[in-house]
Amino acid sequence: MEQEIVKVFNELHEQIGTATRAEVHEKGLWHETFHCWLVNEDYIYFQVRSSQKKDYPGLLDITAAGHLLAIETVESGIREVKEELGLDIDVHEVVKMGMTSCSIVSENMIDNEFCHVYIYPFQHDWDSFVLQYEEVSGVVRARLDEAEAFFLGETTTLNIEGYEYFPDGQRMNIVRPVSNAQFVPYRELYVAQVIKFAREKIFNQT
After folding, report:
1. What pLDDT digit, counting tens, does each position of 45-98 carry?
2. pLDDT tens-digit readout, 155-205
3. What residues does the Nudix hydrolase domain cover (predicted)?
4. Which of 121, 125, 122, 101 is CA-nearest to residue 201?
5. pTM for the whole structure
6. Region of 58 on the Ramachandran plot (φ > 0 left; ψ -120 to 50 alpha; else beta)
7. In this structure, are residues 4 and 66 in contact, taking their beta carbons and an 8 Å threshold?
């Protein structure tokens, strides 16, 4: 996976070449990712990153996301929803929010991404997920209004519910409050903007 080839861009999102995933993270080169958030009128969903992941193991993350390979179009990123969550959806079923940039510096890498953000109006139940365990060990959700307040910094904890699988296949239900430390460190206000867009543009909430 670290040797997969991705497009490399300058800060203006102009392509300047290609590189491996390992190289873009090592050198902080700008590259493209695909984000798909599952949202409905009441909830936003997060994946629990597998404890086997090299980066941010066990943290809560975008419902489904991944790197766009050099040979792929942006719409090809919809495959991540199938690969990670087992949901077979069509690119025409998702709503494009737009592109945002995100830069995360950790001890392991410099991650400079142009993120193509999509929202899937999720109307299924928990049992529709078939998780790719080496990538995703669980799925949780939070109420939209509570999540918006949390990601705007108005509250310090967020109530989540869902489930997670142990390595032995046992499934454990999750109902607990979490803090910012339990989330992958996104650009400030990013998730709040996703929620605002979904409420206003998809579900006509004010």
Report:
1. 999 999 989 889 999 999 999 999 999 999 999 999 999 999 999 989 999 999
2. 999 999 999 999 888 999 999 999 999 999 887 799 999 999 999 999 998
3. 29-164
4. 121
5. 0.95
6. left
7. no
Distances (CA, A) of 61 to 66, 83, 122, 141, 195: 11, 15, 17, 11, 14
Q: Residue 187: left (phi > 0), alpha (psi -120 to 50), or beta?
A: beta
142, 159 Cβ separation under 8 angstroms: yes
Calpha distance 37→141 (Å, rounded) = 11
> What backbone torsions phi and psi does residue 14 show, to the nearest 5 degrees?
-105, 130
Nearest to 144 by CA among 172, 173, 175, 121: 121
Contact present, 141 and 54 (Cβ < 8 Å)? no
